[in-house]
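note to self — DONT lose this again. spent like an hour looking for the file last time. sequence + predicted structure for the chain T wanted, 301 res
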Amino acid sequence: MKSAIQEITPYIYGTTRLGHADVPYPQREKIAQSAIDAGVWFHTSRQYDDALEVLGNTFKNNAGSIPKLIVKIGWDNVSQLRKVLEENLKPLGVNSIQLGQLCLGGQLAEDFANGGDCYKEFQALKDEGLVQGFVVEAFPWSSWASLKALQAGYTHDIIDGFIFYLNPLQRFASNALWDEIHARQQPIIGMRTISGGPVHKLRDVPGFAWNKYLQARAVQIAPIFEKSGIQSWTEFCVQFAHSFPLLQATVGSTSREENLNEYIAATKAVQPLPEDIISEIQAIQYQWSNEFDMQAAPGTI
């Protein structure tokens, strides 16, 4: 049976900004419409304030061209899966989604890691047509569950791939999970394409980086970006993500038309970065993961 992930667009419109009150509502609907017109997949969640309502209103005017969707579901036990899925489907005004992004916490993470009853529920959701497939979210503090399940073979035929922050400044799958994903040739979706903004602003503008570790990393990555000769940080980040053959798509959020157009342009005929640049960034990311990411408390990075 063909996996939904095989039909994915190389750029996925992230809808985080659609829920931000500082963006005028008409602008939010307008950018959502532009992304629909571009024919790209969407990534969304009930966590994004009223983004679902913005999308639901926009979808009403696009009955014949509702985009394919990745939606976050989870969280701490099996019984929450359907409840959280319904909390997303209803405001969106749709009956099913292409990919459920499994956010694993508490007992659900333990169940997933040990081949428990959650897999029966995943299959039931697929059999009922509510979800076509699943990708598993990974953060440094949750990678252990995916690693254990992958090594044990529990994910076979039920999980379509893995999704996590993947950009020059962040690779949030643990080193062990990253290596296992590649050893087993598992599809990847990268999130947070540009890591929060242009690298020079992250490095130089006080307060631009939401967390000081990003500013420190920008100091290390900026010279590599400059050495590449690529003028656009967005283009550099898209090329970085798509330099990994297992990557299917990268998710980037915006409320501005020009940024959406830049994302889309960067994913047309995308070329991978030179091997020496990828190797240099990868070596730094392995170090970051061991020395900082894996020591961070959940939600702090």
